[in-house]
Structures are given as structure tokens and as C-alpha cells.
Fold this sequence. Notes:
The complex is a heterotrimer. Chain A contains 10 helices and 23 strands. By secondary structure, chain A is of the alpha/beta class. Chain A folds into 3 domains: about 5-60, Alpha-Beta Plaits; about 65-250, Rossmann fold (3-Layer(aba) Sandwich); about 275-395, TPP-binding domain (Rossmann fold). In chain A, the strands form 6 sheets. Chain A has a 7-stranded parallel β-sheet, with helices on both faces. Chain A has a 5-stranded parallel β-sheet with strand order 19-18-20-21-22. In chain A, a hairpin with a 4-residue loop joins strand 13 (about 200-210) and strand 14 (about 215-220). Helix content of chain B is about 25%, strand content about 30%. In chain C, about 30% of the residues lie in helices and about 20% in strands. The model of chain C has no long low-confidence stretch (mean pLDDT about 95). Chains A and B meet through helix 5, helix 6, strand 11, strand 13 and strand 14 of A and helix 3, helix 4, strand 9, strand 11 and strand 14 of B. Strand 14 (about 215-220) of chain A pairs antiparallel with strand 14 of chain B, so a sheet runs across the interface.
Amino acid sequence: MASIKVLTDVCTGCETCVSACPFGAIALNDDGVAEIGDTCTLCGSCVEACPFEAIELTKDEEKTVDLSMWHGIWVFCEIANGTLRGVGPELLGQARKLADELHTDVTALILGDEGIKDFAPELIARGADKVLAAVNPGLQQLNDIAYTGVICELVQKYHPEIILLGATGFGRSMAPRVAARLRTGLTADCTILAADTENHLLQQTRPAFGGNLMATIICPKHRPQMATVRPKVFAPLAADESRKGEIIVENVQLPKDILVETLKSSTVAGEDVNIADADIIVAVGKGIGSAKNIALAEQLADLLGGAVAVTRPLVDLGWYGYAHQVGQTGKTVAPRLYIACGISGAIQHLAGIAAETVVAVNNDPDAPIFAHAHYAINSDCVDFLQTMVETIKEKGYKAV
Amino acid sequence: MKIIVCIKQVPATNEVRLDPVTNTIIREGIESITNPFDTYAIEEAIRLKKKLGWQTAAVSMGIPAVKEILRDSMALGIDEAYLLSDRGFAGADTLATAYALAGGIQKIGGGQLIICGKMATDGDTAQVGPMLAEMLSIPHVTDVAEIIRIDEKEMVCRKLTDDGYQEIKLHLPALITVNKEINVPGLPSMQGILDTYDAPVTTYTVSDLDVAPELLGLAGSPTQVVRTFIPNLAIDNEWLTGTVNQQTDALLSRLSEHNIIEKEG
Amino acid sequence: MNLIRPLTEDYSDYLRDESRTMGYADTISFVKTEEEVVEVVKYCFEHNIAINIQGARTGLAGGASPLGGHVLNLSRMTKITGMRYDQDKDCYYLTVQAGVLLSQVRKALENKAFDIAGWSQESIDTLSKIKPGELFFSPDPTETTASIGGMAACNASGARSFLYGSTRVHIHALRVVLADGSVTVLQRGVHKAHGRDFVLPLEGGGEFVGRLPDFDTPHTKDAGFYFRDDMDLVDLFMGSQGTLGIITELEISLMPAPKIMWGATTFLPSDDAGLKFIRAVRGEEIPGVPLFKHKPASLEFFNKNALEMVLKQKEVTAAFSQLLEIPENFNCAVYTEFNDADPNTFLPILKELAQVVVACGGDLKRTWVAKDARELEKLIFFRHTVPETIDMLVDENKKNEPCITLLSTDMSVEDKDFEKLYHLYKSTLEKTNLHWVIFGHSGENHFHPNIMARNKAEFEQGHAIFKEWAKEVSKMGGTITAEHGAGKIKRELALIMYGEENMAKLRAFKKTMDPKNLLSPGNIIS
């Protein structure tokens, strides 16, 4: 069994580990040396932090897979209702870079009915060397059990070393099932993916503790290495129609017991915009003052062809739908422009923003949001929204 | 028929607080609470218990102090509580956690419905629920906003998707993860607290479960954290000053320069 | 002058406060420092312009709503300027500008998050010794966006003042700008009246010599003026609602934060059961009820109308969707909160409280318990939805009849007259066709009967009822305003309480301190 211990004769009581521990599990004992308490999760932060190598983490030798038989990067490209979700091509772009460093190839994995083959040219243009199309009419509907069964069989057949998936609603539901069936590691919501060429590993970096800490994670002894990435974290490559690629069609069988069935799907009235896909977001927080003032944000969003997002307190107050919540307990968004109106900038909210340009409008000049904004406007956000709407109507601005 | 709720103890806040005088991170005074999403799972189990008359149980993995939040769930109306606590469970990633929970759930005879919170606010992965379903070989639905109907054989629930909602039918036994649209978590009654403040919480160690120890804890975790660092979130910013009209004009011209917006025509 | 701007349409919000009283004024200034306050005050003094003082405008009596002249808005004086520890008193003090909000103070203390730029070394050293959440400032008016200056000016209190006392006792020192622009600095225990004579030392030399009115203000908890023999001069400005000077900076005393805060909301079968439960929890000996010896931090009452009103509003107001579901077959509810330095007191006190609940006819299965500050927020949210719903209804009614404002009282009497007061309210209101509720701080005997007038006739009827109550309460030796201050709305009631003779004395006293009668016209004094 794994264990961690402090070498009491080496420890100087410098307390570096105490502040390094993300779980507050370390304290100095009566002898003035570090003692590791029950809340330790064996994460190893202290081992790395200790200037005196006084902390030892022992991990048992484990069974490993034969790494030499796993090759290539797969990108699962989700096709929902006949539409290719944007995150697939975004990941193909990133996979292309990784594959070039690791000297391997990129396969776009698509599942669905016969029609999905039509997406192959685009996927190749966006960086795929191969398109693996798993075809069965039963795959037209996104279904965790059907997709898990098909993907796991293909993994057993082709042995990809890395699988990247979009952290869409479906991706976040299906990927853990696949990882569990394959008994391999899965890292959620990565924001940085890098190649360790020496050890042939995928370095997966993701926010932890609500974005207060970044953690780099590897999966050294299991294959495939799996990671999900939220939409808009990476930019797709420009489509290159001259690229050539191979198309492999697999006519697959569905698992026997599907057990789950989608009876109907609906887009909610007024909520038909998925904020994760929006290029311009007008976000409002409690500083908006009242529920009715959100209409101003809606007007501005309409003028710019964008969407409205809100902070958690507004959802808790019932002023706006949960589908529009940005932040740790809501959605992560990566628009070109994020206009934060009356948002103080709690870290939980900031964790959900990965925008190209952030504008913050707040009447509190000390609001934390300003430290994260490219353009800071110290003003009442209701005044600001009114003026923006009027000015844009008058001067005729629109989104590019 | 049994409903099992999986709950996790998390720090009440993830906020990194810096001491204004010494500029070091303050760690004191952060209490531990039930993962906020799990409170919706507990509430839903209690509502189903009232409606269907099924038994309810809560399961958690963690240090002995986690018994407190398990007792809290009992004060709210959960019938039994189980804690998986052993050094052998420590250091688990989502896969090893799901494996341990699956072992615990099998130990207590399994459940017709397993309810988890949508995700935990400390890990923020939303992976344990679906992984657990896979290990128990049962279907699952994530992000459930409403249970429309349920009987012993199947249920229909409304799920939040990227585009709206879906109505999904699934065969029981099954696992769902719930979001905060599903209910309003209540408070315990005085009777509930008096009945449960010293209620027994069954604790299982690794050897109590029918599991492979090498698949648990740190050893059973395929993923490893190799580095942690504090991100530099601050950026250079420009303050747009003047009246609100001047601020708006300045902003619109900056956004035009950046090719985010353009004048029509 | 630069600071003073015309009060154009853009600033119309600054004509009203939370009480929905709409005033009028010609100019407004948003000052950031005491120097700027002095500049504005001197200008107004010279040009005989009335000064209406505003903090965060969360008051419920129209005190911040102007009556002509200039609006001096302090809401941008938002700096916490230092911290001090007094070894003899073993007490920490925080210095804040008048516009600092209560929520700002709470957040800073809880997270030890202070902007220490410009702090003295002593302040920084003091801060370095404290831990986050170790200290707290106890006054808790419902609206946490109240400014500390405003809280002092109306001696605000809240649910927890039952245990900790109202704002007055937690204000240790003050800087005050007087009517002519001179500045006095006062500290509790240092600057005191001699009998009724007093001297205010002025900055830069000189002094103001005065004499207090020769009557005592009510000895029950009271939000108005405070006059006693040998009193602390800090208290002269507590509850004076800006009529005697402008508070620019305050030193507030901090207490060790309780280690546990928990509460229970009990539903009871009748008003009498509710009142009995309140008396029992306050420690009164009542036959058939076990003696309860632990003083709650707060005791809040909700009558049936108040609960039904909230339930009805929940159906239309999405913001209330997270409201707990109320058990069926209730009559009234009582919220009891306990604060303690020892977290282990929870269970023993809960067990004793349970016996009182049962003895008063309550049901333990229908008594909600919030075990910690986090869960308490749910109960406090529930409590706050009552005044919030009233505000919504008043706003709605105001659309039909603009003269309508909040019709709420905060009269209080001594403990012995507690039930008499409740029945006075209830029996009067039951005879009418008005829409009314009773809720509030039953610990200190001040319920808030509220009338949601739907038309002008009902609004006037409400006012007439309040005047009758003011007479009855004055006869009992109580106050017409325990919590919100008289402001402009309750001026007539203040006259009933003080009587013509004392009101004349008040007027004369104000003239000595504000000879041109420029400060906060229309507040309290008629």
C-alpha cells in the first residue's frame, strides 16, 4: 500500500510543506517537525516543495500495460443532430501539434449513421490524418451505453495511445464510462495539453480548487491516456482543403442492452443559445440590481449577436436560468469578448471565463474583476448598458 | 428497494485567501461541508423515500471525521450511513474512487437507484458518477433536473443538455447525477437531529470489501499529479475613464481596433 | 464650487430611500474625505443652504430622503482606515469612514481581507495578530448594505441586538463635522457630559459649549435621541439622524466572533402558544414549561398573515424559489438563534429547547434546525423574504397611488407589556379590512406590524392607527421607534411620544448646535 512519511531527522521545521499542501493536512508537531494528518490525499505537492527532501512518498509497483503496442492520437468528434460540434475540430488542431512532436498520427473518430462520412473531408482539412467512421443507424442518437460499447471495441482493435474528447454535456457523461471500462486514466477539463517527448506522455493541465491552483497530470502506465477539454479552449486550424487523409469505415454492432432511451429533446425557449458556443457574451452579476435590468443585457447581446450569461447568485435568486451560469458550478465559456457587468469577480466565477478580451464594468473600483479585465470601466453597469445599447443603435455597430 | 446516495466532504470554500500583511495563503478557518451538489441528491432521495416507501442509504469515502456529514444526512431522513475509511483508499483519483464506492455499494447489497451530486466543488471533474455506473454495470444519466416518473422497473427524467433539455427513460437499477434545479434542499428537523446525533455509521476498511486492493487508492489511480502551480490570472488592463458616454465610445473604438465589432455597411 | 452638482434627473434615485419616501433637492455632492465634507458644509453654512445627509439610503423612515437644498452623499467614503487594540479593555477597534457598508466590514473581518494601503504601522501590526473570522461587529440590521455612519445615526439594531445591544454601544469613537464646518473628535469614556452640561473639543483649538435638554429619552431600547446625566458625548450623535452634525469617521468595537451560530424555526398552533414560547425562551418562569436559561441571540416572530403572504409571493417571485417549504397547519412561527463561544453547547441547548417547544404545543418534526452559520442563511433568507415581500407589495400599490409608502412600525415596550402590545396590534388590525402582517424582533418586544395600503384611504387609515398606537405605547412608557428612527415618516409619532413640551426643548437644543437649522431638515423634530 502507498504511504507517505516525514523523515524526522531531516526535517528542519521550515514549514514550506505546510503552505504547499493544498489540503491543509500538514502541521508542525510538538517536536517542531512536520506531521502529516488524516486529510492527506498523497498528492505529493509537499514532496516536491520540500527543500530538504525530507518527505518520502512510496508507491507500490503496479501492473503496467505493454506501452509499445499503443500508437496514435484519437480525437472524438461529436456529431449531434447531424451537426459537427465545434470542439472536435478545435481538438484536431491541438492533436496535430502533439502528434507532430510525438511523431505519430491523428485520427478523427466519428460515430453515427451512414451520413457521417460526409464530415470526413472537413475533419481531414482540420488536421486529421485518418477518419475512423463507426457506422450504425442506432448511433444517430447520442447514447452513453451505445457509444461506450462501440468506442471501447475500437480501442481494443486499434490501440490509440491518446484519446481527446470535448467536454460537452455528452462528452462529460460518456468519457468517464469509457475510461472506467478500459480501466485507464481520464483528466477532465484540461486547459493545457503538452507532449513529454522523452517519456512519450501527454501532460494534462487543468484548474483545481476552483481555478486557484493548476495541476499537471500524467497517466504513465495505462493506455489510452484520456482527456476532456471544454469547447473554445483551443482554436481550430484553418481548413486546408489540400490535405490528404484516409477514411476507414467500420460497420459496427451495438451493445445488446442499451437500457437508456431518449424520449424527446427540446431547446428551451429563450435558452436556445448555448453560451459555451457564443462569440460575444454579456454577463451580469448582482450589481445589475434587479431582475428586470437583465433585459438591458439581453438587448446588448441581441445587438451584437451574442448571448447573456449570469453569475451563480443570480441563478440562486431565480433571476435567470441555470443554463446561463458561468463559473465553477456552471459552464466554462471562451468567447472572443466577455463583458462583465456588475460582477465582482469571485474566483468561482473567474474559473469559468477563458475569453480573448474581457471588459469589466463595476461601480466598485476595487472589485477583483478589474484585475482580470483588459478594459476596466468604473461605472454603474445599468448606465453603461443603457448607453451601450443607445450608442450601438445610433452608430450601427455589429459583431465581426 | 433501496436508494443509495453517494456524498463527499469538501472544503466550504476554494477561495485562496491571502494575508494582507504577510502575503501568504491563509488556510485557517475553512470548515468542511457536504458537497453542495450532494445536498440535492440527499433531498431527492428523501422525497423519493416519502413517495415510494423505499429504503435510503448514504455512502461516503474519506477520513473518520466524514461521519459527521453522514449523520447530517441521517438527520435529514436518510435511513443508514456507511463510511469507507482506510489508508488504502487514500490518494484515489476518480477511477479508484469509483471502484471503492462500487465495492461499498455491492457490500451493502446494491441499490435500485444511485444518486450522486452533479460534481464535487473541490475536484470539479463530474467523473465519479458515470464511472461508478460503469463499474456497477448499470445505466446512468447526468445533470438530472427532474424525475418525471419512477417505479421499480424504470424511470423517466429530465436532463439538462448543452442545448436545452432531454427526457430520458432508463431501466433500473440505474445511477443519476443531479443538478440544483431538481429540488430545494431542506433543513433537518429537531426530531431528526435528536434521533441521529449519535446514530451508528458503519465503517468499512479495504479488507471488509470484495475488492482488489491494488486497484484502490494511490496505487489504483492511473493518473498522477506531477506538478501544481498558482496560475497568474492578472493581466495588464486599461482603465477607460470619463463619463459613461466617453467610456462607451472608448470601448467601442477599442473593440473595433481588435476587430471584434465593426460598423455596419 | 466643484463638489456640488445640480441634482439632475440622473440622480433622481438619491431623492428616495428604502422607505419609498420621495423627496426633492437642488444639488448633490459625493464627498470622499472629511476635508470635502467640511468644504461643502462651510459653503452651505455661508449660503444658508439646507444639508440632507445620506449614507447607503437603506433606512426605513425617510431619514435620507431630502427636503430641499443640498444632498450630502457619503456613500463614497468607503475606506477602512485602521485598526487598534486596547490592552486595558482587551478590545479591538476598527476605524471606518462613514460610508463603509456593514457587508464590507463583515467580509473584511471574515476573510481578513483589508486594503492596508495608507494604514499606520500600529494598524498593520494589530492586523497581523488577528485571524480571519476571529472578530466580528455584532449589529445586524436586516439590510447588510447599510452604511456604518447611517447605522450610528439611527442607532440601528437587528435581530441579534437582543443579545448584543444596538449599534450605539458598539461605537467607540467618532469624528463629527458640526453645522458651521468645525470638527469634533469624541471618544467613549473620555468625553462626557457633566450633568447636562457638555463641551465638544474642536479640532484646531476652541470648543463648543452646550447644555442637553433636561428630560431623559425613553429607557427602553430606542432609536431616537439619547439624553442622560453625565452621558458619553459619542451618544449625543447616536440616533440623532443627522440633525446635530455629520459623522465622517467611526471607531467601531469588535468582539470575539462566536464559535457556533445555530438556530431553529418552530411552527406553533396559535398566537398565544407563540407568545408563550417567546416568553419561555426569554427565560420567564411559566407553569408547565421547563425553565430555559440560555439567552438567545435573537427571537423573531412571524404571524399567520406574514407566512401566508410569503407563500403567496413565492408562486410569482422566482427569487424566492429556494425558500424552504412551510409545513401545513401552522399558525405562527418563531425563529430562535443562539451564538456561543463553545461549539459543544449545541446539543445540550437543543435538547432543552426541544422540551420548551413541546411544552408550548410545537412539533419537533416541524421545527427546522440550522446547525451552523451556513445553514442559518436559509432561515435568515426566510426571515428576510417577509420585509422583501412587503417592499414588493408597497411598490405595486404605489403604482396605483403615488402617495403610498411603507407603513411599518417598530414601537417597543417593557417586557411586562409584551403580550398587551401584541394584542393591541392584533385586535386593532383584525377589526379592519386592511392587508396587514405582524412579524419581527419579539425578543426586545418590538414587533413590526405592517400595513400594505392599497389606496389613499387605507394609507390614511394606517397612519391614524399608528397614531393611536403611539399614544398607547407612550402611556406604557415605551418608544415609538426602537429600531428604524423617526426620520420623516414617524415625525408625528415622535411628537406624540415626546409631547409638545419636550419637542420645544428639542427644537431649542438643536438651535444651539445648528443655529441656522440647516442639518437634516424634517428629521424627527417637528
